[in-house]
């Protein structure tokens, strides 16, 4: 009996090497690239003994190494320590958590905000909890929504319609299948990270009004980068109708965590029922204090956003002059097209090995096969000379060997 018990796990575990080998054969195996970012040289990191330039970071404004954020986190760590000591309801709610949630709610013109450990958790936990609470609700989800949104919807087993990306006619046809009194929720993003395109937020809200639907908009890639005070596409448009607005700290704000802003009662319900909120350790107060400083810098003026978009325009001009294919999107994201799973990996290796430049290859399932790419970012600290050197290196690396 003892021998059988010890042998069984070994047999069961054999499935994993086989599945990993299948991923490798299909070119889908993910390899991590260890890089330690350098606060003193923004845009650079150490990789082993080498120093490399990083051109694919989501740190859109370069705030994660900003001296004021670094100082705020160090000072708070000295005063409060390195961890929160528990979940939000077990000694993990600091004064900074409360202040930050109050500021976030006001920023988005909502009654309440709730902080989560990441943007993924914010989406998954909020959606799955809200949807489960409303009997017979139907969810309408954009086909290119982030996996966190998709999984939050799937978790509930609710009835759903996945409409083609930004297709308002298809969305309206799906909404029209249900009466005005039937509960509905439209889930979409403001900026889609793989193509860098922006959704028609106002038109979607018009449909929501017409068909009596709630709305949940993920502003992850717009927070800090779009809007007069960086509150996202909704702020840029003066659009206050979305029921729920999700955002993150781990990109343009420069720290870690995510949040959802919306009606007080609904988010108080999420606070009281979402397992991923209740049963997890709260983010440290030092991280939240750094986030407050990042929010200060994002809100105090648009100089960083202007420099970011100046760099985007410069990069696009340089790519165009070099004959390099890219998606000319509305946002700060610049997808450079390198079709072919093996080709995009090969070009990435050449950039790293020959030029000390790191850009991660993006392939299926993040994007459809045949549309592989790099997603290039150019934070405000990038200089025209650096951009020119990057484009020259990219052109050489794209050339046949």
List the helices and strands and how they pair.
Elements: H1 2-13, H2 15-25, E1 36-37, E2 44-47, E3 50-54, H3 67-80, H4 88-92, H5 95-107, E4 112-116, H6 119-133, E5 138-142, H7 147-154, E6 159-163, H8 168-175, E7 184-189, H9 201-210, E8 214-218, H10 233-237, E9 244-248, E10 258-262, H11 264-273, H12 275-278, H13 285-299, H14 303-321, E11 334-337, H15 341-355, E12 357-358, E13 373-376, H16 384-398
Parallel strand pairs: 3-12, 5-6, 5-7, 7-8, 8-9
Antiparallel strand pairs: 1-2, 2-3, 4-10, 9-10, 11-13
Organism: Streptosporangium carneum
Pfam family, one: Aminotran_1_2
Enzyme class: transferase
Word description of this protein:
- One of its GO terms (molecular function) is 8-amino-7-oxononanoate synthase activity.
- By secondary structure, the protein is of the alpha/beta class.
- The chain folds into two domains: 23-54 and 302-398, Aspartate Aminotransferase, domain 1, CATH 3.90.1150; 67-299, 3-Layer(aba) Sandwich (Aspartate Aminotransferase, domain 2), CATH 3.40.640.
- The protein has 16 helices and 13 strands.
- It has a seven-stranded mixed beta sheet with strand order 4-10-9-8-7-5-6, sandwiched between helices.
- The N and C termini lie far apart (60 Å).
């Amino acid at each position: 009996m003892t021998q059988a018990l010890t042998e069984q796990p070994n047999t069961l575990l054999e499935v994993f090497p086989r599945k990993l080998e299948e991923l490798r054969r299909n070119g889908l195996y993910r390899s991590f690239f260890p890089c330690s970012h350098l606060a003193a040289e923004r845009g650079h990191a150490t990789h082993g003994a080498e120093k490399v330039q990083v051109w694919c970071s989501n740190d859109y404004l370069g705030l994660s190494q900003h001296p004021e954020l670094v100082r705020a986190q160090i000072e708070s760590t000295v005063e409060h320590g390195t961890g929160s000591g528990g979940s939000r309801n077990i000694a993990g709610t600091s004064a900074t958590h409360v202040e930050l949630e109050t500021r976030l709610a006001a920023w988005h013109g909502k009654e309440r905000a709730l902080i989560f450990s990441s943007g993924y958790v914010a989406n998954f936990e909020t959606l799955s909890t809200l949807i489960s609470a409303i009997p017979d609700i139907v969810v309408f989800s954009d086909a290119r929504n982030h996996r966190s949104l998709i999984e939050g919807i799937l978790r509930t087993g609710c009835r759903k319609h996945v409409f083609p990306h930004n297709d308002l006619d298809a969305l309206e046809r799906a909404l029209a299948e249900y009466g005005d009194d039937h509960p509905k929720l439209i889930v979409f993003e403001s900026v889609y990270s793989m193509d860098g395109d922006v959704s028609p937020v106002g038109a979607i809200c018009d449909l929501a009004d017409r068909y009596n639907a709630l709305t949940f908009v993920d502003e992850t890639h717009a927070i800090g980068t779009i809007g007069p005070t960086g509150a996202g596409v909704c702020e840029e448009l003066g659009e206050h109708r979305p029921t729920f607005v999700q955002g993150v700290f781990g990109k343009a704000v420069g720290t870690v965590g995510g949040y959802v802003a919306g009606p007080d009662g609904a988010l108080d319900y999420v606070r009281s029922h979402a397992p991923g909120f209740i049963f997890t350790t709260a983010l440290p107060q030092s991280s939240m204090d750094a986030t407050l400083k990042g929010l200060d810098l994002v809100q105090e003026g648009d100089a960083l956003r202007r420099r970011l978009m100046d760099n985007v325009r410069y990069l696009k001009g340089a790519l165009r002059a070099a004959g390099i294919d890219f998606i000319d999107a509305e946002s700060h994201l610049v997808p450079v097209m390198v079709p072919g799973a093996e080709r995009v990996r090969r070009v990435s290796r050449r950039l790293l090995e020959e030029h000390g430049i790191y850009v991660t290859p993006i392939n299926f399932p993040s994007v459809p096969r045949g549309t592989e790419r790099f997603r290039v970012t150019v934070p405000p600290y990038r200089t025209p000379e650096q951009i020119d050197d990057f484009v020259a290196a990219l052109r050489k690396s794209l050339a046949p060997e």
